[in-house]
Design brief:
This protein is mainly alpha-helical. It has helices spanning 13-29, 43-60, 62-78, 83-106, 115-131, 197-201, 205-221, 229-237, and strands spanning 193-194, 241-244, 247-248, 254-255, 258-261. The radius of gyration is 19 Å and the shape is globular.
Length: 262
């Protein structure tokens, strides 16, 4: 739904907070906010919905957030809201719920860190998803929200993370067919490295900016999707990809562990 930054007319403190945060992070990341700071059917609108869902999930839980937010959108549709707007909002709401689920796995003590840092982490992940094409930023986008999809849908199970960054809790692959990632090279750089959702989600802004074009090229080559750590661990178990452990270069530069095609 259309929102703008007219604080004098806005009596809802939470809405004020979300609009204020959207404006703050728009200045930091430079996403489109439209004329007169209107967050409506654009990148700012997508950011606000996605970000807000993660904040609500942190404060109230994912399921209550999903129920209340979906109800709000269905009421909007009943009142005559453009169904394309409802679809965009519902899609981005779900992305925000998924982001908070990721954060819970990556930061076991997330709620204990200062609120401003919590917001920075959430905002960074929202922008990364936006840049990776995961959010809907235009009501004419042809992707459709699937209400049957839960807030988090792991491709092949849920696991923890070992010290070397490889997820645990995934069954070994018994698939003897050729890996879909075997022989993969990035179409832009020729690099065999394969980025995962978790890896990109944890990147600091400067690292993401450095690798953004390569990441975008990978997403495009893979049909708009990005594998999870669990996907690639299964591929590694089957011999299709290799996990390169973290190491330090001769010049002292530290390189985090990553997956690459065989």
């Amino acid at each position: 739904m259309k929102e703008n930054f007219n604080y004098n007319k806005d009596k809802n403190e939470f809405t004020k907070e979300m609009l204020n945060d959207t404006l703050k992070y728009q200045k930091k990341y430079g996403f489109d906010i439209g004329e007169n700071n209107v967050a409506w059917n654009n990148e700012a609108d997508a950011f606000r919905h996605t970000y807000m869902q993660s904040i609500l999930a942190q404060r109230h839980g994912i399921l209550p957030t999903k129920i209340v937010s979906n109800g709000h959108e269905w009421i909007g549709k009943f009142k005559g809201q453009d169904p394309r707007e409802s679809n965009m909002d519902l899609w981005n709401n779900q992305q925000g719920q998924q982001i908070y689920n990721e954060i819970c796995r990556e930061y076991p003590h997330f709620k204990s860190i200062p609120e401003n840092l919590q917001k920075d982490i959430i905002a960074q992940k929202v922008v990364q998803r936006m840049k990776a094409g995961k959010l809907i930023t235009d009501i004419n986008d042809t992707r459709r929200y699937n209400k049957l999809t839960p807030p988090f849908t792991p491709t092949r199970g849920i696991g923890g993370v070992q010290n070397n960054g490889v997820p645990t809790g995934f069954a070994a692959s018994t698939n003897s067919q050729k890996s879909e990632f075997s022989g993969y090279t990035n179409p832009l750089t020729g690099n065999p490295r394969i980025y995962t959702r978790e890896e990109v989600g944890a990147m600091p802004p400067e690292e993401f900016a450095k690798n953004e074009k390569e990441i975008d090229a990978q997403v495009s080559a893979m049909g708009g999707t990005m594998p999870t750590n669990g996907d690639l661990q299964l591929e590694a178990n089957g011999g299709g990809v290799i996990y390169v452990n973290a190491y330090t270069r001769s010049d002292g530069t530290k390189v985090s562990g990553y997956y690459r095609s065989r």
